[in-house]
Design brief:
By secondary structure, this protein is mostly helical. The protein contains 14 helices and no strands. Helix 9 (about 160-170) runs antiparallel to helix 10 (about 175-185) and helix 13 (about 220-230) packs antiparallel against helix 14 (about 235-270). The longest helix is centred in the C-terminal third of the chain and has 35 residues, at about 235-270.
């Protein structure tokens, strides 16, 4: 009983910032900083109507679409490229496989800021600055070594007899991958999709570097621009837009949380 009480207390502490964000989105501007109460004295519904108008004449619907376009493109790229790279490292035999796999794992420790300037120079020469390609194209090149490693660990736990049976039936490496290995790797792929979606959706720094036209802004960039768009700090509408930005992540996580737990458990114990 005491353990349950402690767990409930910890849960309330962890959920308090979310409750505070939701309550603050209904507060008048003078209560956001001046008052320490969780609930507002009266609900300011105008915060949400102002947030729906967006920033710099760009509606919140357009901002939401831009964020979804980048996040879904990144998810598609990571799932395709990381699964192909993981299959090569986990199931195929080729020269320099060990050193290449070790080099790939070492890139996990490489800070993102160390490669930001070279990447920006490359995309600038390709004419892709102020487009969504710098956030999407690298995902199709298996640049996220963490997800490659995660899928490799999962694939190494799959029985090789399945591939051998497929090879006897005349399947080549690609047919074995798409028909045998890929369906069995669904938990790891869904785990990759969930983390990619969340990390890409919340990525502020990369979007700030490559995007500078308001029509191409995401919700993450709009949150920063929202305060700068007026002479006074419109905290109420800003928190209302934060709720809009948080809602897709919560829905995405709730829809796939069962597969997330299954994929993390299986990938961590096998291999």
């Amino acid at each position: 009983m005491a353990l349950h009480a402690c767990l409930i207390a910890v849960l309330l502490v962890m959920l308090y910032p979310l409750a505070w964000l939701l309550a603050t989105s209904f507060k008048p501007a003078d209560e956001v900083i001046a008052s320490l109460k969780l609930l507002p004295s009266h609900f300011e519904w105008g915060n949400y109507s102002t947030a729906l108008d967006g920033v710099n004449e760009v509606s919140v619907g357009r901002l939401l679409w831009n964020s979804l376009l980048i996040a879904c493109g990144a998810v598609l790229g990571n799932v395709i490229s990381c699964s192909l790279a993981a299959y090569a490292f986990a199931r195929l035999r080729f020269r320099m496989r060990g050193p290449l796999f070790a080099f790939m794992i070492a890139t996990i420790m490489l800070p993102h800021h160390a490669i930001l300037i070279p990447q920006y120079i490359i995309f600038n020469q390709l004419g892709m600055v102020n487009t969504y390609w710098p956030m999407i194209l690298p995902k199709f090149l298996a640049t996220d070594a963490f997800f490659v490693f995660l899928i490799v660990q999962f694939m190494r736990g799959l029985p090789r007899e399945l591939e051998e049976a497929a090879r006897i039936d005349g399947c080549g490496p690609f047919r074995s991958f798409f028909s045998v290995i890929l369906p069995l790797t669904r938990p790891a792929l869904i785990t990759t999709a969930i983390f990619t979606f969340i990390w890409t959706w919340n990525d502020f720094f990369t979007q700030l570097i490559y995007l500078f036209e308001p029509e191409k802004f995401t919700l993450t960039l709009a949150l920063r621009s929202f305060v700068d768009a007026s002479s006074q700090s419109a905290f109420g509408p800003m928190f209302a837009m934060s709720v809009f930005a948080l809602l897709p992540i919560v829905l995405f996580f709730l829809a796939f949380q069962r597969f997330l737990v299954e994929g993390m458990a299986s990938s961590g114990l096998k291999g």
